[in-house]
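Study this pair:
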Amino acid sequence: MDFELFWRALCLDAGPNHAWVAAALCFLGAAAGQVGSFALLRRRALLVDVLGHATLPGVAAAFLLALALGLEPRSLAWLWPGGALSAALATYAADWLLARTRLEPDAVLGAVLASFFGLGLLLLSHIQTLPGAASAGLDRLLFGQAAALQRSDAVALLALALLAGALASLYGRRLRTLAFDPGFARLAGFRPERLDRLLHALLGLVALAALPAVGAVLAVALVVLPAATARLWSDSARRMTHIATGLGAAAGYLGAALSRAAPELSTGPLLVCLLGLAFAGSLAVAPRHGLLWRGLRRRAALERWRAERALP
């Protein structure tokens, strides 16, 4: 790794395109951490995995439609609306199955994820057989390739992340109330059904924005890991959201700089590895919920119990 280039990347002096990519990943990580906190509290975190995989059929269908119309098929202006429509269909299918069958939620989510992801892979395999260079590179949406983003794509990703973060901030108090007590939320004048749909829409926005950056496969890690790490450090929902937002932003910024200094490393997996290291470290040393301090407290409690038993 080129450490001089890494330092320049941290200072946003590694080229104008890198500066836009770093800003996009920073705000994407912040939005993912913020929305992921609400999803974790509401026990809907794995829904982003379904939405991320469910975008693939829509993206592939939009690619084929643009190709048939003679337009630029790899433009995010075409791919994102197709992915959004496909993710919305997946959400509707999951809600319909939950309301009209006796299947458990995990079984429904697994069935929807597998069905849409299988269809997406089928369409992607068909696209790869088409003649011409225009069909190449669409499989990057599986794992992402943020370093290859053009400035226009990075700006579009940044705008989508800002929209998700702004909506999450605007409705943050309502979403926290819904997560802790849906009954009280209803008495307070909120509509839990609408708030759940809003949360699903926010998860869908994050999943769409994550496609070119970390891909459909790793989008769930971008949402779950910052929130889970923050949960280890705080029992306050508000403070947890702030920690997750900051952690996601830092991981996105640092991941962009590391991938710029080491081009052989893919940005998406690198970003997720940084978040994984943060989670592992927090699991070990977090003050209240870390394994180390829990072990020390348990040992101290055992020693006090032994000392009390030894008294006459």
Observations:
- The chain has a mean pLDDT of 84.
- The CA atoms of residues 146 and 213 lie 4 Å apart.
- The two ends are 65 Å apart (CA to CA).
